[in-house]
Every structure is written in structure tokens, then in C-alpha cells.
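---------- Forwarded message ----------

FYI, see the Aminopeptidase P family protein record below. Original note from H. follows.
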Amino acid sequence: MTDSRTSCRFQSFSEPSDPSQVAPRVAALRAALAKQGLDGFIIPRADEHQGEYVPAHMARLAWLTGFTGSAGHAVVLADKAALIVDGRYTIQSAAQTDTSVVTPTKMEETPLDKWVEANLPAGGKLGYDPWLHTVDGVAKLEKAVSAAGGMLVPVTPNPIDALWSDRPAAPTAPVKAHPAAYAGESSADKLARIQQELAKAKVDALVLSDPHALAWTFNIRGGDVEHTPLPLGYAIVPREGRPTVFLAPEKITNEAGDAIGALGEIAPPAALEQQLKALGAAKAKVRLDSATAASALATLIQDAGGTPEAGTDPIALMKARKNEAELAGSRRAHLRDGAAIVRFLSWLAREAPKGGLTEIDAVAALEAERLKTGELRDVSFTTIAGAGPNAALPHYRVTESSNRRIEPGIFLVDSGGQYEDGTTDITRTLVVGEPSAEMRDRYTRVLKGHLAISRAVFPKGTSGAQLDAFARAPLWQAGLDFDHGTGHGVGSYLSVHEGPQRLSKLGTTPLEPGMILSNEPGYYKEGAYGIRIENLIVVEERQIPGAERTMYGFETVTWCPYERALIDLSLLDEGELAWINAYHAQVWSNLAPLVEGEAKAWLEQACLPL
């Protein structure tokens, strides 16, 4: 395995930003804005679909400011500029940009609209790209700009594009058909369900602006962004009749083209504006997804005489409730993935105590084990591998400059794989050498919270917000907590972060059978170590004798032992101990036939009863 440790097929460890480029680029943007009579411009970390990952040619925020995080905005005025990011990126933003030109600003203290309201000069014209902001986002900005006594101005084309001389080309990954055996439902049946929802909502058409919805509806997959098999494009589904899919024809394979063509029309992306104007001219009421639809889409419909209605995309909930084929695929993927993780962990247990391994070595070794399955299509996100204090950064990404040696203490690995039959996401916190009493206490409290979710039974209609405290209670009892949600939804060979279901204080969507979620409480001691334990779980109905209501619980689909050396048995009750032992027995039963040699011997020891 040592030969594979220095490189990865799906991940890079380079530091992509260069702060020295920030000053000349911001100066060039200011000059371009002045020529257009603008006093400022907003640069979001977003593409036209508001995706978690943006293709390289849409990474305007990174090009201008050097900041490569997954969320944020820059605002450039004539005399000042801000880079507004959330707490995850406070340290990263300051390291990646030129702070003499751009001021990193905490979103929690000064959100974008408040910064604009406080800093835009009276009478100032603030530009924005209407393809990169949602309808709701523009409404908030308009309110802030108005309060500042200024004017919000839509600007197309984006002024950065003319300055970005070496801008990458748009992605051209092939669009492929997603096999029926994995999808579990035909596109025709999905479209019939969608059109029923449009009739109920009394709207004439739905614009699919979320590529996840496009991929799910038409049973296609692509490769236009990192780590998620998405084709970037749009579709319009009318209440009656055939839909139109807007994708570059040269990207569509014959098989995918035949499948889409049997149900609807295929048009180039440039035809989208014309069709939206036609809907407007027909006085149509058109549903737009409030989470992903660009403000520009609403303007095109409205200016032509139609009624854009920003609201919930009905596909989101359909996609969240996995069918039996998707669930079977997820279970298969997790067995395959679990065996790869076990091979990795057994290797790590042998090699880490020798003192020669780094975080990058571990990331590359884990990816190599997944590749050995012969089924890996990508990692489902950039692997988080944090040693010591790096483990205390929940969204840590190792680079050549941040790479730490794995030394005695905590080592956290959060990773996942994309397989055609399922998407995985697992976190295990490990220890090299002897843990401190505090580490064992904190790990066991996180484990107790994890088990509380795993064992939860709850009535139909319960939301993730109502369960979130279950995972925190053991930490709260010691005056501790964690600052992220307990769990997110997961797609079926789609995004590893899928809504609307979530285990979080903000998770208001009722949980329903077939939904896949992560279960990942944590604890982070800044500058010292971090702990997170994560399995994927599926909502399922529970038969309880004498129950007066429909009750649900969770099926665990991730298979991998917990870190025995970090468990303080004195903190566990009998029910928790019995659950862990039963889980470990099932891990052994499921994975022992899939591993051999040293990995099998390691697994046997790791799964012994506590």
C-alpha cells in the first residue's frame, strides 16, 4: 500500500490560493466597476444552481479573493472590501486572502445584508449577478441597499469574467443513464408523480434548477462537479405534456439521450431563456425552487407577463424517500465500503505506532482501499483526516502545508465513497497510544449521544429538530456541546449532503421511512483534539405491541467497529453496552467474509464483546 500513499485519483493536497494575486485583481475589478458607473459588486461563492460544489469556471470568489471554502461572499466597494464567511472558515479566510485589501468578516456577527447596509455609501449603486443569487437573497439585498440609501443593480455579463484571462472552460463530462436496477423507479413514473403535485399546487410548470432534481427525475448522472455525479443543467416540467431538458447535446450519451427523448425534448442551455419567456407570454404560473433558482429566472418569467412562484421543489421530498432498490443499493455499498475501511484501519493500527505516517498518507491509503473494490466512482467528499489539533477543526482539509504527522493521541477520519448503487459517509475517531482520561470521557459521551439517535423510537411526524437534543444530552450533562448539526440527509449516488431531512436544531421536515441520514455528534477541544462518530441510518417503521400511533426508528447501514480503547465502560448503561456488543457482532458477521489475513484478525479483535 505504501506505493499509493503519495497521490490520490480523486483528491488533491495542493494549496490552490495565492494571496499575492488579490490586490491586482481587486484593483482591476474596481476599475471595471467604475467604467460601468457602479460603486460596488457582490461576489458569492455560488454557481447558477447554488450547488455545494461549483465547477472551476464558476469559482469567481476563489479567483478574486483566494478563498476556497464552500460558503461565503465578497463585497468590493471603491474604498473597502469584505470577505464574509461563517465560523468554520475564520482561520482559512485570513490565511488565503490578502487582508490588507480584503477584510475577513464573521457572518455570525455581520451577515452580508448588514454589512451592505452599514458600508454602502448613500446614493451608491451596488451591482450583483442575477444568475448567482436566489429570489429571496435578492429581496434581502434590496432591503439592505434601500436602508443604506443606495440602489441594487443587476449586472450581466458578470464583470469578473472579462478580467479572468485564464478562466477554465465549462465542464463537458458525459451525461449517462442511471440503471433502472439502481434507480428503482422509471422516469415516466417520477414525472407522473411530479405532475400530480403541480396539479395540486395549481401551477402550470416547474423549473428544475437543482441538478440533483434533474438527475433524479430523468435517471441520469454526470460529472460536472467534484465528488457528486451531477450533470449541470435545467429542465421545465409542465403540468401536462412533455418536459424539456436543457443540456449541451454533445454531453449526452446515446443511451441517456434515448431515455430522455422517450419522455421529453432535449434543448441546448441557450434555449432556456426563450422557453421561460414563452411561459411568461402564456401568463403561466411557474414554480421555482426557492433554494436553488436564480433571481434571473423569475425576472425572465415576470417580464414576459407570467407569474413566478418561489417555493418548495416537490422533487426534494420525493428524492429523499428512498425506494427499496435504492435502499438495497445503499446496503450493498456500505458492506463494500465497510470492508475497505476495515482494511485501512487494520493497516493504520500496524503502521501508525511506528511514527512515520502523516495525514496525507492516511487519506491516500484509504482512497486506495476503496479503489480496490473496483466499484468506486469518486470519493463522496474530500476526506477529513485530522491528527491532534487538526481533528478539532470539523471541516478540516489536509494540504501539503497543513499536513501533520500522526503521533500519539487522537486521529479523526471522516470519509465516504460514491458507488453507482449508493453513497457512503463514515467517521471514526481513533487513538494512537494511550488516551487520557479526558479523551475517554469525551469520546464515550459522544458515543452515548450517537447511540441515543441509533436507538431512538419516535412517532410519525417527528422532525430532526425534535431528536437533535438526544445526541447532545450526554455532553450537556458535563457542560459541553458541539456547534454543527447532528446529521444531514444523504442521496442515492448523488450528494452526500441532501435535504430537506436533517438531524439539527434547524431540521423542521418530518422524518419519513426511506430517508437516509447521518448520525454524527462530536466534541472539539480547540488546539488539542476533536472527536466525531458517524454512521448512516435509515428511517423505518417500528412495530410496537400495543402502540397507539405509527412509530418510526432507525436502521443502521454503516458497518465498522468503534474505538475500544476510547470507551469508558463506567459511563455506559446496560442498554448501551448491549447495543454496542450486538452491533459489533453484526459488523463481524457482515464483514468477516469480505476481508482476510491481517485485516480479518484485526476485525475479530475489534468486535469482541466489551
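H. also flagged this: Residues 176-319 form a domain with the Creatine Amidinohydrolase; Chain A, domain 1 fold (CATH 3.40.350.10).
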